Amino acid sequence: MLVADTRAGLLRGPIGDIACSIGRGGTIAAADKSEGDGATPLGDWPIRGVLLRPDRVAPLSLALPWRWLRRDDGWSDDSADPAYNRPIRHPHPYSAERLWRDDGLYDAIVILGHNDAPAVAGAGSAIFLHCWRDGATTEGCVAIARDALLTLLPALRPGDLLRIE
């Protein structure tokens, strides 16, 4: 199990302790999470899979389900969208985050099972473990240095959880 110790600012796991960042809104009880609050939801979140940007990440040997990120990949963040908190393809008729980014934050994305079984409209979307820009907060995700994330990914297994505490 991975543990995001938000008080210490560390992600604890199979490769040791790694500095991490969380949402600009701090942490929040999962039941109180709402779309756009910038808070990171407390709880145990299953690791669903990984997206990797093919022009920036070399192929990795992963036990987790994964696929290459496409330029038109997105994630619905519109609570009116029937596909809320699920992957979509752009163009999309509702608001959706673009996953193909120039800033490197989504070169590797670990999809977490927050608010997805089933998704409750407005209860938060796109909670990921992704690459960190040193010193920056996220919009509610957990982020670590890119090199650390790429080292961590092969150690993760189906059934693993990320505990945010």
From TrEMBL:
Show the PANTHER family listed in the entry: BLR0621 PROTEIN
Q: Which pathway does the record list?
A: Cell wall biogenesis; peptidoglycan biosynthesis
Q: Does the keyword Cell wall biogenesis/degradation apply?
A: yes
Protein's UniProt name = L,D-transpeptidase family protein
Q: Where, if anywhere, are coiled coils annotated? A: none
Q: Which Pfam families match?
A: YkuD (PF03734)
* UniProtKB keywords: Cell shape, Cell wall biogenesis/degradation, Peptidoglycan synthesis
* Residues covered by the L,D-TPase catalytic domain: 1-165
Active-site residue list: H130 (proton donor/acceptor), C141 (nucleophile)
